[in-house]
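During the first year of the project, the team set up a workflow for recording each protein of interest as an amino acid sequence followed immediately by a discrete structure-token representation. This format lets reviewers and collaborators read both layers of information side by side without switching files. As required by the reporting guidelines, we include two representative entries from the current panel. The first entry is reproduced here exactly as it appears in our internal archive.
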Amino acid sequence: MKKNSCKLIALIGACVLLTGALTGCGNSDSSAFQGVSASQESTQSTQAASSQESSQAAQDAGTQTSALSGTITMSGSTSMEKLATALCEAFMEKYPDVTATAEFTGSGAGIEAVSAGTVDIGNSSRNLKDEEKEAGVAENIVAIDGIAVCVTPDSSVTNLTKDELISIYTGEIANWKDLGGDDEPIVVVGREAGSGTRGAFEELLGIEDACNYANELDSTGAVIAKVASTPGAIGYASLDAIDDTVKAVSLEGVEATAENIKAGSYFLCRPFVMATKGEISEQSELVQAWFEFVLGDEGQAIAENIGLITVQ
């Protein structure tokens, strides 16, 4: 009996030990599983958050470059062709769903078009007239341009005073020898009536409707080409359009440069205007975005790169 009791006690003890071991293993496996599970949940949560952030960043980037769509139309000053073309290209690159177009028909025609509502913006290389402003057209100056007076590259005249320039264009001086140059007739070249460049040039000199032109041409390029190919010729054009086929003369001893215009020492300069029917704040979202671009750092850098004076 005593012997059997000992066997029974030993058997019970073994069962207890076995049960404890199994329980410990179960707890260990459960704890490990819970740790892996928590780690997986943390990783999944981080990945989800990262994915959401990436998606939001992509949406934000897309909003900045693609939210705008539609067409902006401009017409007007031929002197503003280089600026308008460069701005259109940069704006469309930034906003791929936008089309920006510009026609170069002269300042007067551009202001008439925007006033009639046939274009969004009328480009003018002169200040608006009082009657144009009274008709509801807003003058938005986007850059300042110098007007260069140019002669043929072989001309011996390199400087003119304001009074001499006035006398040339009114016909009082008709030969270069009277200005220290060669004995050669002066061929006076200018722009057509309605040109912003002509309007600004004559207004700055105070010779409106008093000029004695030999040639009146309808574009900046045509003026430069005519002066370059005509002995004794003199003309005027936007500073940024002057090339090595002609020579820009100094005025009152001051060279036609962007630095001198900024300093206020070169007197032949005028505004580049992008006119709208009503204030900018009254325009469409797309046109407002255009002016934000043009008058911002990007647009003003473009103006400066082509030789214009910024308005910032």
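The second entry, processed by the same pipeline in the following quarter, appears below.
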Amino acid sequence: MRNLTMMTDLYQLTMMYGYYKFGMTKNQAVFDVFFRTNMPNSGYTIMAGLDTAIDYIKNIHFGPEDIEYLRGLKLFDEGFLKVLSEMHFTGEVYAIPEGTPVFPYEPLVRVKAPIMEAQLVETTLLNIINHQTLIATKASRVVYAADGGAVLEFGLRRAQGPDAGTYGARAAIIGGCSSTSNVLAGQLYDVAIAGTHAHSWVMSFPTELDAFRAYADIFPDSCMLLVDTYDTLKSGVPNAIKVFDELRAKGHKPVGIRLDSGDLAYFSKEARRMLDAAGYQDARIFASSDLDEYVIRELKAQGARIDVWGVGTKMITSYDWPALGGVYKMSAEIVDGKMTPKIKISENPAKLTNPGYKKIYRLYGKRDNMALADIIALDDETIDDSKPIKLYNQHHTYQTKVIRDFYARELLVPVFVDGRQVYESPDACSIREYSKKELAAFWEEYRRILNPHTYKVDISDKLYNLKMELIHENREEYEQEDC
């Protein structure tokens, strides 16, 4: 993992310099990473990026070249530069494990650290968590639409740069993809890689049949042929069947064909009929061509006979929602051992923050183990599952729901304690299986592709009262200043 310490916004460094100049370096702060809205038509979001964030935090340090560059900006004095040269992360991080379904306003990551350290990590944490969570969520929706069909991620050529393509591939695996075309991602994360050949392979031979035979000769036991270079049904599929016959005569079993253009519903049904008639009922049909969850959903509704879905551009870029919009907000300050909750107030209710040092409970039904609701609470609170609990909509408190016969599970887990890493990330494939299991605990109404039901996320009475108290205190302070 390369050192990303300098991958930050300048204003983090100028604020850190201000804390240093005003003698605030021993103060501590609590910050939350959260987002305010799911992507359009999604009832949930999939947490991802924690493994990368761990690598970033444990490698924080300013090297000699970094200090020399900062010195050249002529913004900071030598005392501050010395502090930076000796800095490493000494604080605490709690986070929700990757693959967990999460919802707006829930702290995905909670940082408690000396204020300079807590301030420094903002930009990079948001960069990592925002991107990978976004792609994992998009992938999860695509996989849901495929409804049991395998999904291959192959968006590297269209991703916004090498990091987006590689970390995005890992996030797509977490979201449920079975494999990726990205060889580097396969090497780094020990995930399955897959691929066939391009149209250029077919065009490089005198005839399509020559190209198919050459490919089959090289890869007799993994032969997947791209059949739409010239004419899918008149030449592509018939030539593929000829080559499959030749492979079978030699004792090999062909994998199948790939469709990359045209009416995929019609072509896949016709290709299936032709393959079955030729005795290749086990041959798989792979399809690609600007697919996303909406197109896949429509193709499935039209009876498309597609076994594997290759999804590139619209998944690796999250084409219809290009940014998660996660934020990093201070929720408490600790001075001389005393914690003071903090709140950001806005005329826009959606931008009000939840103050204090918080945790999250997920409530499940005792009879069916299905998720019922989440509660954001202060860290010193516990939930008594022997009594009914009344939930309120965070923004419309007249909307209430009483829950009985439930049990509660805390979502945030310790990742760093006193600067020491205490959490080891599972591998990407294990996270994918965990995420699949976690999603299965949510009713279909929350997971559907269009117009999902809104999952309930409440704040505890104690947190609500603290929030209202801070709002009124700030309002009174500014009203007095106006007099």
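For the second entry, the following points were noted during internal review. The chain has 17 helices and 21 strands. The radius of gyration is 27 Å. Both points are flagged for discussion at the upcoming steering committee meeting.
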